[in-house]
Fold:
Amino acid sequence: MLSFWGGGPNAYWNFYSWISTGVTIAETLGIHRSLSGTNMDAKDRSLLKRLWWVLVVRDAFCASLVGRPLRINMDHGDMEMLTLEDFEHEKESLRFSGHPSIDTFAHYQIQVARLSLVLHEIIFTRFVPGRNRPSAALLQDHIEQWRREVPCELDWNRANPPVLASSLSVLFNHHIIL
Structure:
């Protein structure tokens, strides 16, 4: 949450410092690694997966915003992508029952995480010098592939799309512009 505090232009403690701190703690705890073979409660395993993917998403979006390097090296971890099952405990919560976004929030989080992986590729292409870079056409193919796989619950081209679908549309177009 502290990564939303930007700090001043010359401040050492800014969003990047807080993301770095969060990633260091997460990697120390090992949540960047697969939890599928652990003897852990499913609810706890899902929470750790979601926390990791929040860091991945926030790292990618902040890095793209200011042209800084990514803090997370995805090659160092093997955490599985989020699934709908990772959100079942939230849907069962009394705090969440009856909420208008109950049928779309999990799909949204999964799609944002998947889209952040495309953003990782874009960042490497635009901001990392001397790296073997994918072509703009290949990046375009990746983002179009992602778009084809967006579930119907988040289709922003339908009449009266849910708010989360419209938010996903903004992210998609941001990536196209980048």
The two ends are 25 Å apart (CA to CA). The mean pLDDT is 87. Helices lie at 15-29, 42-66, 88-91, 105-127, 136-148, 163-177.
